[in-house]
Amino acid sequence: FFFFFLTLSFIKINKQYKFYYQFFFIYLIVLLTFSLISKEYEFYISMYNLLYLYTALNAAYFMVNSSLGLFFAKACFFSYSIFLSYFIFKFGNDVDAYNTILDGSSRNYLSAISIFLTINFYIHLKLYSNKVVLYPAIINLILCAFLFGRSGIALSFAILLVILFDYNKKIFICISFIATITVITNYNLINSFLIEKSNFALGVESERTLFRKEYLNHIFNNSEFIRGRAISNCCTYIQSYGNPHNSFIMGHMRYGISHSILALIIISFILIKRDLIMIFFTLIIYSRYFLDQLGLFTHFDFIIFSILFILIKSTSYKINSSKLSHP
């Protein structure tokens, strides 16, 4: 609350963003109010977690409005790619070793960071130069493939396909045809690799599916839908793992229905803007949020907020251009 007040009072915010900053300031109070009635977390923990909202919002603002935004996006992407490449050369196909790179995190977490930084690269490239390049998506897919996670491989492949389609539709059709033939002719080899090395061996469902079913079971029958659930009262599986592996469930546990509403407001705003590539990237981000505790609220939220600010900036530019051309 104090930091938001300082930002609104003493930091010069561009006019087109002021309404949105004021909205988040007011909604911060709503979230804090709901955190007081949370059944799972103490108020001070939820309040501390909201600092991520503040820092991510400001990081996004300065990235989008700084002339160095694209430079920082590239620097983050390449630095992290080099970081991951070092461990890939070090560990090779030792799947479990990748779970030790970041303390308390798994290889799925590593692939999520790579995906987020790839998206951050592309949205700033779109903002500053409106060029389409393939190499970030290719590098990201290779890194995620070596991390052997289902979501990382699937989402990275989806990003590459969309970027390739945007880059050159003829090349997209050609490569898609070659890829299809390659998969058909080498099906047994690819299937063997996925079963032996990646989490596809576990199928499309995992313990995360149990967590979601358990948390949502009978949630509409009482006030827990509004105030958030206490996992000790409902969720044996989540309690045993200590983490629901879902950003939206974690947010609901801390802030109740107010967190769910904010998540819907954010994606609704982006959908209304009808920028297909931004909608696609938002769905990718929300998909990762859905599978791990990675956002709303964490430091990675600066990417989703960057998308918001870029869309706001683009809309403002179009309005101003229209005024200039139609006096």
Summed up:
The protein has 327 residues and is an all-alpha fold. It is built from 17 helices and no strands. The chain starts with a helix and ends with a helix.
Distance between the termini: 42 Å
Strand content: under 5%
Radius of gyration: 21 Å
Shape from CA axes?
globular
Note the run of SSEs as H and E: HHHHHHHHHHHHHHHHH
The beta-strand count equals: 0
The pLDDT mean sits at 82
User: What does the main sheet amount to?
Assistant: none
Count of helical stretches: 17
The percent of residues in helical segments reads: over 70%
**Spans of at least 5 consecutive residues with low confidence:** 319-327
Alpha-beta content class: mainly alpha
Fold topology:
Elements: H1 2-10, H2 15-36, H3 43-65, H4 69-91, H5 107-128, H6 135-147, H7 150-167, H8 169-185, H9 187-197, H10 207-216, H11 224-227, H12 231-234, H13 236-241, H14 247-255, H15 257-273, H16 276-291, H17 301-325
Helix pairs in contact: 2-3, 2-15, 3-4, 3-17, 4-5, 4-6, 5-6, 5-7, 5-16, 5-17, 6-7, 7-8, 7-16, 14-15, 15-17
